[in-house]
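Fold these two proteins, one after the other.
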Amino acid sequence: HPWLVASMVLIITWLGLRLCVTLARWWLKRRDHPFYLSIVNRLSAPLSGLLPMIIANLLNGELTYVASEQQADVGVLLTTFAYAFGGWTVIGLTDVLADTMRRQYHIDSTDNLRERKIITQLEYIRKVIIIVVIIITLAFILLQFEQVRQVGTSLLASAGVAGILIGVAAQKSIANLLAGFQIAFTQPIRIDDVVVLEGEFGWVEEITLTYVVVRLWDQRRLVLPLQYFIEKPFQNWTRRNSEILGTVFLYVDYTLPLQALREELERYLPTQPLWDGRVANVVLFETHPQSMQVRVLVSGRNASETFDLRCAVREHLVTFIQKNYPTSLVRMRVEMDNRND
């Protein structure tokens, strides 16, 4: 019976695909083939639906129905599923390419400026491609229906007015989308950049089509629209490279010998793995009536390590002053006149 044969072919096709996927995953996990493993992981599900739908469409013409309209309706249903799985397959191919690029460019390295530039552009373009594929897939599905085609013809006739209305209604969304393109290619920020904005310090974690997620130092997430980074000033500490200077301020008494502090800093920093060896400096920054302000300047490979280095240097130098020059800590001097009137 044709229906029985068609059902058996579909079931065997689907089971065969699942078996092939399972064997491929088992074999690839025991070998170092990340590219092929990515293909299996990303494409196995959509292809498991696309191939049976294509075969079902081919078999549909060979089957007999009680009513001729039923064959056309089933054909439209199968084609709809084929379009949906086809769009999913294209998105899967995009993800395979993105996985390949991520393996090639690691943003967890120390000097990762080039990698962050490429990954930022890659993520934005990937999101745009996914949106475009979804829109095109929906268009193909809807254009199967005569009523939708007639509506489309009517809309084309009034495209000018509709375009103006849509443009006004979606002004902010369009501005955000254009801001996303500007950020992706001019790159005032990139993935994993260290930024200071709204009084908060954090790392750029995600750039979407409409907003940016910043991971703050205490693991909170600050979500800002893309236009924020085009219209408002902010600090980007890793715009050119990840190396950064850290400052430690100490308030001490005038009796503290600064040369001893310099020698202690030069002795301590080589023992600190967070120090990159570039800058180590102690200067008298400012004087006050009761104390003097000493600035200690150190350098690190990135903002996170430099922050930890600043804390370690501050604690060490304060301990050094407490042990060796306790009378040089900030104190208030009061002179009392004991003369009798």
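Now the second one:
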Amino acid sequence: MVKKYQRLSEIDATDTDNHARISDIENKNNQQVSRKRRYSKANQSTTHSTTNEANQLLEKAQQLKKNKNDGADTNEPTIMKAGRLTAIAVQKNKQRFNLFIDGQFAIGIGEATLVHFALSKGQLIDEELLNQIKTYDHCDYAYQVGLNYLMHKLRSKKEVNEKLQEQDFSEDAIHFAINKLTNLHLIDDDNYGRSYVRTEMRAGKKGSRVIARDLRKKGLSDDLIQDVLTEFDTNQEWGNAYSMGEKYFDKQIRKHSVRDSVQRVKTHLLSKGYNHDMVNDVVQRIEQSTDDLSIEHQALHKEADKLWRKHRQLTDKERTFKVKGKLMQKGYDIDEINRYLEEKGTND
């Protein structure tokens, strides 16, 4: 009986321990759930804060882009108010200035704008004048970009216009810049066209037709193109065509027959813009200056030997048929081909 009560007491103690462990586990689970909820709220708060910061940065970037398109400095306010000009400060690049109206930054301008409006400290600036300053500075900046673009080499009017359009300048600013550069003879399509023709003539890589096409793409009118092409010396053009054709013929004859090589020279010269009459004259002169039989014979033997070695795994009949077909495709004379094959058969 005593033992029975002892066992019951032990069971009760065990149940009590189990309940205690279960209670501890539940408390730990509740603490973990609580921490997760706090972390989730904090994470949501952080995400919301990050999103707000990203949106603010995006808005600032869009505003900066708008200011740039308007020709203003990046730190220019959206609304410019009238007042008295209290300070003119030089920017870091030494060529632009910050204007302060009633102690507040108003706008950044270039040196040309400062001189144009004769701005000085203490001057009264109303909203109309402030807008005029902003507009003029935007136009002057377009002029400066165009001027810098022309420093490297001559450009046509169309090229400069496209460059300024890429920079998102207004139509009025582009018109102002083009006119000013033209009046200074920095944009001159006539001078540009003549210079282009002389350069290509010396280089000897293009004929008059291709040059005319290139100038048309640059925006020059057909009448002006015809006028500037008078700079192209016909004798010089013929010499360029002959030199180019001769070099190309020497290259082609290594792999093709004389007839095929001549045709390739014609195609090449026509693609470079030389007219048909000049090309035919050049090709005829090249043919006259070469020993056709000697060149044909050497070129055929060189190509045939290479094909003969390439197809050595074939039977004699298949080998002969294959080599003969390839040589005919390259334009070699059939009699010369048969003669070579006969010599090859005798030697073998």
